[in-house]
Fold:
Amino acid sequence: MPAGWAIINYGRGGSSNMEDKMRAVRLYATWAPKKEFKLGAKDVDGRQTYLGSLVWKNPKLVIEDVDVPEPGPQEVLIEVKACGICGSDVHMAQPDKKGYIYYPGLTGFPCTLGHEFSGVVVKGGPGALNKVTNKPFRGGEKVTAEEMLWCGSCKPCADGWPNHCERLDEIGFNINGAFSKYIVVPDRVVWSLDPLKKKYKGDDIFLAGSIVEPTCVAYNAVVERGGGVRPGDNVVICGGGPVGQAAVAILKRMGAAKVIMSEPEASRRKMAKAFGADHVIDPTKENFVEKVLKYTDGMGGDLYLEATGLPTIVYPGIEQCVWEGRTLNATIVVVARAEAKMPVTGEVLQVRRARIVGAQGHSGHGTFPRVINSMATGMDMTPMITKKIKLDQVPENVIKLRTDRKECKITCLI
Structure:
């Protein structure tokens, strides 16, 4: 077992009231701030930080019994049916050489992991309303949910930017997530899967529902932040993980002329072709810049997506494409989380009228219902699920994904 890891399975024999307990995959870590860390206004000393990789050390995955939650006012209790493992789950539980986690963002431990989920409403708390009916939940509704729990009252929320809420909580990051049988979430982030019922039968609707969240991350990145494309534009996507794959499908559906995927793993390149990519590049064996310029007849991309989390390696190639390509006004969207600084040459952005934008989250702007409706009318994202597991298998698969990129999306059926 890799250093800095521990997987502990606690038995269930000691509980006297099992209907009030459930098994959950939880992450523990030690609060050990690095010298350069300064406690911010939104950090909670010893409990929560917006700079996870500067604070949390020696992560440990644990499967243990926890209390079944009860919904409070305007909250919904959901029985989880499917939950995918995200790259952020891997990076929160992955120590570097000094034992610090890789994930650089909002984190608070201990915490139940899991945020890409779908399930069935058990009951709503007082005042919890179903968006479909504007009436209280009856129970039995098939739903998914945002993982960004925006407050709705801070200035960014009031200005229409919920992904940048000043009092943000995130499911599976600093509050308990969905690698468990039940989860409680605010009604404002719950979305109906009813549009998917005609296309997906049986439990397949829950598999599709669990893919909505990462697809919304891609939608927010390339449409809301990147501005989308006009039919006939060229697109270059770096990174064939779930977000990159979803971006292929979304941008091709929008009318992109040539969608190019750069990805080292052969199985992910093959998947990108299935989602609509016109060309794929193996950047470990082929010259990325030469291939992009060749496939676009010297124009380069109108939109570039950095979805690898390796900006120091990937960005110089993107920048060279922008410089050598004939396309002006290119947009570079950075969606993958990374602590490393990007090596940016301002002159390239100035001369080529290019811009770099960051993308975080998936909330607001009608993103969830738009993605659900797209999936209901032909944009099938379920092929990215390449492996299905049980709850007790989550920790070992989180570890496996640190080095094994053959699986695109591993989904836990609960």
